[in-house]
Amino acid sequence: MTGPSQEVECELIDLSSVAVAELRQTDLTEVAARVLRRLRTSGGSISGYSGKFAEPDAPAASAAPAS
Amino acid sequence: MTAEPAISPPRHRLSGDSFHALAAGLGDERTVRELRSAERSWRMVVLSLVLDAFGDRYDLGELAPADETWQLVVAADRAAPGIADEILTQPQAGVWAAHVLRRLDGSATGTVPSWVEAGYLHTLAAAAAIRAGLSFELTVPARYGVVVLPTLGHAVLPGDPAPWCTVHLTCVAGVFEVHTAEGTAVGPGTPAWQDPVILTATEDGQALTVELMSCDPYRDLRGPAAPRRLSPAEIERWRRLLASAWSMLVREQPERAPAIAATVRALTPVASRERFRYLSASGGEAFGNVLLSDLEDPVDLAVTLIHETQHQKLGALLHLLTLSEEDPERRYYAPWRDDPRPLGGLLQGVYAFAGITAFWARHDSPEHAGLASFELSLWRNQTVGALRTLLAGDRLTARGRQFLEQLHSSVVAGRGSPVPEPVDRLARLAALDHQAMWRGHHLVVDPVTVRGLADAWRRGGAATPVTETPAVTTSTSPEVGRFDTRAVLIRYLLTDPGRLRRMREDPGLLAATVTGALPADAALISGDRVVARAAYAGLVTAHPGSVHGWVGLGLALPEQPDSQAARILLSRPELVRAVACHLAATREPGEPAPDPVRLAAWLGAGNPAGSPPMPVPAVWPVA
């Protein structure tokens, strides 16, 4: 399907030529829906070593604050 | 006045070389550069969504409005291009942005006030402006008495501050101070200021540099976390561990080490775990950050860096391309997890374990020889099996199928040296054990079927075949699961047999060393099947709901091809357990408890299946 020399066209827009300062002037509507969908379902994108990685690490349960 | 036309950028294009390298489970610095560029684009979109969402929906309290704060970022970017980029693409900024969006749409909750969460933007902006040499003043939040300025360090406020408060930050041409309400000023050069902890390991001219993160509120992948200051001794231990692990990786994995160095930018330690039960994790929004529990051995850190770099590469690729389509009605068996996984989770797992398999195929230290053979045999077979499950399904996109077919070829081709038969047998036992434990915990047998079988047993009739596919539960109880308990004992057998012997002699030591392990387990792994069988039989007679006991009994029975009891216990433990539980719940006074081996053999005779007893399918409908 894709040979080593063939580029793969991706689904993500390329903002490499857009400076941070110009970000708010950039039209992102085309890609925003896909990104939001991924974020909403990305609870599963945390890839832990095993099912034992389930305990919350909320602030109250964490180690003592800095002293 | 006419509005300035919006810029419509093109799409990313991934080089064919990089796609194929990634599909082979590899990728070099150039590949990671392409992925980093994609991650920057992804992050910019996410940040833009956050800024859109803030609008008037987030209570910022006494903090400056988000748009105004963003203007500080813009000014920093114009004054010193590249600095804002570096700060905004930090992994913790991604965790923050995604978390805030989830809180706004209600898919995440939290106890941290919204203005404190929103105020992380202010600390990002402040860090960018300071490093750009600007002069400004800004109010920023402090959490648990700590103010973190990403990439610059953190200030520790004096006294016993409230969980959340604000501090005033002043900066003149890049020289800054944090002022508390009580009038204390903290900044670089004062005792209460802490620079980032940067660790660099170098081997054969190749360097790996990471920040050891412990105070940033978004260093944890799951949401905000309180600061956890590391002692100088802990930092020094991580420095030594990293140096040894990096040396090992450069020597043994020369084709993987450069990508690790290009990918991993931060390590976030969390509390220690039992030996062989370490934790590590990566997040799709945190490219470059690895969460990991305290480790003891450099080999554990080396394999963790391989493992997590695999996750990070695939996570970035998945931002570029869709490789699969989720089906919320299906869950998969993943041989490295206790919980039923969605397809995306299994995909991440096979990619990570392809890397782990490659690590163990090359690892050559004499003190780990037995362990390396065991891990290689276990994970290469499990990875190939899971890849075949994915390839046999219909949920892959064309690009995803191409990717996984190449990964499958790569794993099969790189199988490594033959594994000695005794160790291979232990790996097969561990694989069967985990799969059977998973089935016993998660598969739900139709209660009508169970009642019919129990009635037939009481009548002295034959067991009727059970042909329907059980449904799978989607939740797990890790604290009672611990499907790896006997595998952990195998690892002790291979690395420290004396300790296993002492654990067998001292049940207290066993329980304290391997949570969930029983004397029967220690007997089984030590090779004493007779003792193990009697103990497991006693356990399931007293507690017919014990999956651990039923599967252990199956493992302890003699290895005979025609052993109906062993086969059904290891291939369909959920069936035996369900019938035994029903018989116990409905037992008449004076009715003896069934002999567990006889009951299993009876069910096995009624449900003949092929050998070896590997359950199929590996994908299940959700109950």
Q: What fraction, in percent, of the residue positions of chain B are helical?
A: 40-55%
Largest sheet of chain A: none
Return the average pLDDT of chain B rounded to an integer: 92
N-to-C SSE series of chain A?
EHE
Could you give the distance between the termini of chain A? Answer: 58 Å
> What is the straight-line distance between the termini of chain B?
60 Å
Poorly predicted ranges of chain A: 49-67
Report low-confidence residues of chain B grouped into runs of 5 or more.
611-616
**How many strand elements of chain A?**
2
Helix content of chain A: 10-25%
What quaternary form is this? heterodimer
Q: Numbering strands along the chain, what is their spatial order in the largest sheet of chain B?
A: 9-10-11-13-12
Largest interface: A-B, 59 and 102 residues
Structural class of chain A: alpha+beta
Word description of this protein:
The complex is a heterodimer of chains A (67) and B (623). With 67 residues, chain A is an alpha+beta fold. Chain A is 18% helix and 12% strand. Chain A is built from one helix and two strands. With 623 residues, chain B is α+β, with helices and mostly antiparallel strands. In chain B, 52% of the residues lie in helices and 12% in strands. A five-stranded mixed beta sheet of chain B has the order 9-10-11-13-12. In chain B, strands 2-5-6-7 form a four-stranded antiparallel beta sheet, covered by helices on one side. In chain B, strands 3-4-8 form a three-stranded antiparallel beta sheet. In chain B, a hairpin with a 5-residue loop joins β6 and β7. In chain B, α2 runs parallel beside α5. β1 of chain A pairs antiparallel with β1 of chain B, so a sheet runs across the interface.
